[in-house]
Amino acid sequence: MKESGNDRSEDGRSALEAMESAAKQTFWGYLGCELVSADPGRAAISLRLRPEHLNMAGIVHGGVLASLLDNAMGLVAILACPEERTVTTGLNVHYLQSSSEGVLTCEAELIHRSRRTLTLEGRIADNNGELLVWGSGTFRRVT
């Protein structure tokens, strides 16, 4: 896990490391996601592209990009509601450019919160900082 530039308590760092360790046993780990940073209301994750992430045209599969976006926004939702379960209820993905190699970075941010719903936005960029995907998602608190 890489850390953000902000000071973080030892307890907070340990909790994030435990969360990332547990996530490696899930689809997060199967996909190859890595935590880059996490702060209240925002997070960044990365994915080193592998051949199995590509489609038959030799570019990253749209489903991989959507999953990366959903994982990053889902992490922000989990951190915003640590004592509750949250689920994705809507995901809008706008594919802007393609990529076929390197490391992708997805940054997600909480932009609105109501009593039961969280609204987030996310961006995926390639090694050169080129914007590949922009998306938004809604997450529902299911206590």
Percent in strands? 35-45%
Low-confidence stretches: 1-8
Radius of gyration: 15 Å
Strand order of the largest sheet: 1-2-4-5-6-3
How many helices? The count is: 3
What's the CATH architecture? Roll
- What is the mean predicted local confidence, pLDDT? 91
CATH topology category name: Thiol Ester Dehydrase, Chain A
| Count of folded domains | 1
CATH superfamily: Hotdog Thioesterase
How are the secondary structure elements laid out?
Layout (H helix, E strand, L loop, with lengths): L9 H14 L3 H5 L1 E7 L2 E7 L13 H19 L5 E10 L7 E11 L3 E9 L5 E11 L2
Outline of this structure?
Strands 1-2-4-5-6-3 form a six-stranded antiparallel sheet. It has a single domain, classed as Hotdog Thioesterase (Thiol Ester Dehydrase, Chain A), CATH 3.10.129. By secondary structure, the chain is α+β, with helices and mostly antiparallel strands.
3D structure, described in words:
The chain has 143 residues and is of the alpha+beta class. The chain has one domain: Thiol Ester Dehydrase, Chain A (Roll). Helix content is 27%, strand content 38%. The protein has three helices and six strands, in the order ααββαββββ. Strands 1-2-4-5-6-3 form a six-stranded antiparallel beta sheet. A hairpin with a 3-residue loop joins β4 (103-113) and β5. It comes from Paenibacillus glycinis.
Task: Supply the key terms.
143 residues; Thiol Ester Dehydrase, Chain A; 6-stranded antiparallel β-sheet; 3 helices; 38% strand; disordered N terminus
